[in-house]
Design a protein that fits this description.
Helix content is 76%, strand content 1%. By secondary structure, it is mostly helical. It has a single domain, classed as Farnesyl Diphosphate Synthase (Orthogonal Bundle), CATH 1.10.600.10. Strand 1 and strand 2 form a beta hairpin. The longest helix is centred in the middle third of the chain and has 27 residues. It is globular.
Length: 324
Amino acid sequence: MTLSLNQIKEPIAEHMTEFEVRFRESMRSKTALLDKIMHYIVKRKGKQIRPMFVFLSAGLCGKINDSTYRGASLIELLHTATLVHDDVVDDSNLRRGFFSVNALWKNKIAVLVGDYLLSKGLLLSVDNQEFKLLQIVSGAVREMSEGELLQIEKARKLDIDEDVYFEIIRSKTASLIASCCAVGASSVDAEDETIDKMRTLGETIGIAFQIKDDLFDYQLHNKTGKPSGIDIKESKMTLPLIHALSVSGRPEQRKIIRIIKGNPDQNDVARVLNFVQAHKGLEYATTKMEEYRNKALELLDTFPDNPMKHSFIGLINFTIERES
């Protein structure tokens, strides 16, 4: 049975409530325009899955403390900065069903807002001498940038095979969830071996999480608000398509690649979706996603049983059984 987010939060509910208060405070600015934008960003916050990973990881490895709160805030500040910058790069006007910062205040202001958020994260770390946490999260931001650039580079030729795909999503998505788990463990002074294990756990979860996101794009009627086939329109090679291409003949491969390269319309997208379904790309990606979930659960099984572990299992399952 899949636990709801409220059920998953139970062991850390008070910490999450306190975190929200502290995070709102950390976003304040004396500049009126900036404060208005910060208020808008906080108001449209998502499920807060990443701070949950921080607190559950800390609770699994020790006792949650002020350092844990700072680690969760650091993750959210730097993650939010990357989202603001991503919307500028992608020329996206929507984020979680709301207008993006660049849609409301234009690109120049959005870039500066992203820079401001990055600086707040740096100052939060330096002012409190949280250098280990800063090192962990900065490494994730570097990897996310490298992963995005690798994807852009490969999208030009559409020569992404399965190995390259996993390298991209490990960097783009999994590195941040890996840093959440490592930050949680580090904040409670866990041993280096435990921090490394938590980082691996988070990376494994992050890969499963991204495969789930990729599968949404191939569902004709999903609840994400994300139009089916948007990755195809943007020439993004995700696992269902990569597998379908790998098991098809050369003439069919060339035909599909030509469609994707040619600014596909909705009819073209439908052809690609049918091609992927016919070659069992969705089943293959789902199997891979389940493999990564099972790897994560096996790693988690090495920790003692307690309410934090139970919720952690629930959060892992939630990330790949969610409907949005």
